[in-house]
């Protein structure tokens, strides 16, 4: 009698065991996997990077090459009180990116409390020096400015190098933010920086603990080009110095990039034109960038941030990459921003 009642429970009114359907699904999955394996078929591999490069809100990307990998160091794009750490990303082919979490945060930089942004990184004597802005100071009575951190590996962890800001003064009306460290052909290191529409350059001491004076005895040299707002960077191509910067307001859709060319890293810098800006069909607010040169090749990529069309929050910015090309006279062609990004490009080839 008990057995009969158990059978009634286990089978439905149609006499079908309820587990039968689950076994059928399981059998179909196994059969499909076996057939897939027998055909030798493979899942399609990603052939282009796509834009954005990786998920999350990231801006102000600093890009470069260390060893056999490409690296990107962006700002974590969030309200200033939440902007207290930085992540990094690396790739062997520009397409597949690995995230390196919290390479630096305010727990390792005691004077930094908020608004850590716009990293710039250089390798020197097997050490990696990460320059960053912090606290968004509005006057010299506030603590903050431009700092330096150091690590043994490009993925960190980075620790405060000086225990205080490298630069906390407002000179030539340039807010001490958005620093870019540039190594010249003679081994000298210059730091371009500045917000509020002003740009200064200083010459770094070899140990990055301070600045060297110019020939006239001054420390700060203003090099502000017409239209400059923030985000300076520099690179050399065919013996010429290319100076680039961001224009417009970063919170709005009309953020853009312009550039100049000079025979000297100190200018003068005469604005040539806009080379990257929004495309209302793709994204808005395209700006604050860096460039990657494939080592030993005349191949260039521009890494920048932009805002998706369906986003209006100022901090909803994503990191993207597209090709950067030159015409026969050495001028930069206007960059076409895309959803596709770039194709695979492994280093060492």
What gross morphology would you assign?
globular
Q: Structural class from helices and strands?
A: mainly beta
- Note the gap between the termini: 78 Å
Q: Characterize the main sheet.
A: 5 strands, antiparallel
- Are there runs of 5+ residues with pLDDT below 50, and where? 1-14, 25-43
Q: Which percent bin holds the helix content? A: under 10%
How do the helices and strands follow one another from N- to C-terminus?
A: HHEEEEEEEEEEEEEEEEEEEE
Number of β-strand runs: 20
The gyration radius over C-alpha positions equals: 26 Å
Number of helices: 2
Rounded mean pLDDT score: 91
Per DSSP, what share of the residues sits in E-state strands of 2 or more residues?
35-45%
